[in-house]
Amino acid sequence: MRRRPRRSRRRRSRIFPILTRPCSPTASRPTRSSAAGLRTWRSRARRMKKRSMSTSTTASSSSAIATSRSARRRRRASERRRRAFQLTWLRDQKTEEVCMTTSRSLAIAVLGGVFACAGASALAQRYPTKPIRVLVPFSPGGGTDIIARLTMPRLAEALSQGVVIENRTGGGGYIAAEAVAKAAPDGYTLFFTAANLVFSLSFFPKQPVDPVRDFAPVSLLVKEPSVLAVHPSLPVKSVKELVALAKANPGKLNYASGGVGTSPHLNTELFKMMAHVNMVHVPYNGVGPATIGAIVGESQVILAPVSAVFPQAKAGKLRALAITLGERSEALPGLPALAETLPGFAAFQWYGVLAPRETPEAIVAALNKELVKIMQIRELRTRLIGEGSVAVGSTPQEFGVHIRDEKEKWAKVVKASGAKSE
Questions:
Q1: pTM (global) more than 0.85
Q2: What pairs with residue 134 in β-bridges?
Q3: Domain ranges of the chain
Q4: Quick one: angle between helices 306-314 and 143-159, nearest 10?
Q5: DSSP secondary structure string, 71-124?
Q6: pLDDT at position 6
Q7: Can you tell me the distance from the alpha carbon of 82 to that of 87, in angstroms, rounded to the nearest whole number?
């Protein structure tokens, strides 16, 4: 006897109530009710899946957003650290570069100074290796030319090298001055200057060169006082009497000079200003013609260099009254100083040597050393005293200060006196 199969006791599922329901063993396909249940399950399963996926997507999206934010923060922090490192590295590199550049520059400067000193010293030891050219700005036979030919041959002997004197006239001395200023600063072109170079600046300031700016002073060699003299027909025998006569006859006395801007012109203007007198200026073409004009009586007064006036006074052609140094001179012991009547009066012609501005100091020092020795030679000093001049022989610094003071002094004299070019 065949046993009846036992009915399955499957537990009903809350989610699959239809599938867990027992089916007839003879059924070949689901019934209408079972198909509807399957569709319901499938739709519910899809909803649950979507919900599950949505929940998972939301969670994963939130997690991804949080992760991306954290990553961005980490990237920004990393970028900040990288930039800070770069800035620090660049700053360190720049500091190191500056230090290296400074050290290199300092080393170059020190080595350059050492080599420059060594080169200048070697250059001074070799100097000179060829003849030296000395430009004199006035014609032969004048005061500047005479002093140059007294001193420069001795410089040639001291240096064991030739010295050529070249007279280059014109332009009040500024043609020669400009030629020297533009020459190579090697010590082989020198300028034998006189006070006229500074005097003319007071009237003609727009000169091609400036004695203070464009030259290297070497040495002030000679001071030559001027002599105040009158025509013998003038009834005066002292400076005091001349001042009194000029005040009593304003504008009636004439004075001679070598031309506008020359030392006789400016010296007499200074005398007029300090003595408070009025005299008429008669300019000549040079000191020689001016002296002749005073001798023949065209002018009654002349204040000119001693080399031009004193020989004529010794011959009785003029009457000398005073010299223009601040004190009496051993060269002319019989003449009083003009400062004894007009306190503070000092005006004299001077001569010296200049070099182009960029001339090495070693060469300037070598020239100065020899020129100072020359001005101490007794024979030369005696001859200068015999001509009424005084030997000096200054340092380059002293000569530079002297030129600067002279330039300022005569500019003030011209401005205060109202003297003008004619």
A1: no
A2: 165, 190
A3: 64-126, 132-422
A4: 120
A5: HHHHHHHHHHHHHHHHHHHHHHHHHHHHHHHHHHHHHHHHHHHHHHHHHHHHHH
A6: 56
A7: 9
Amino acid 167: pLDDT: 94
Distances (CA, A) of 76 to 69, 81, 87, 88, 356: 10, 9, 16, 18, 68
Neighbours of 409 (CB within 10 A): 16
Of 146, 130, 188, 162, which Cα lies nearest the Cα of 359?
A: 188
The amino acid sitting at 170 is G
Q: Which residues of the chain fall below pLDDT 50?
A: 11-32, 117-118
User: Token pair for residue 2?
Assistant: 């065949």
| Rounded-to-5 percentages of helix, strand, coil across the chain | 50, 15, 35
What residues contact residue 289 under an 8 Å CB cut-off, 6+ apart? 258
Question: Class assignment of domain 132-422?
Answer: alpha beta
- pLDDT score of 253: 95
The DSSP H or E segment spanning 56 is helix 32-126
pLDDT the model gives residue 96: 61
Q: What is the DSSP letter of 14?
A: S
- Total residue length of the chain: 422
Greatest CA span in the chain, whole angstroms?
Answer: 195
- pLDDT of the residue at 68: 73
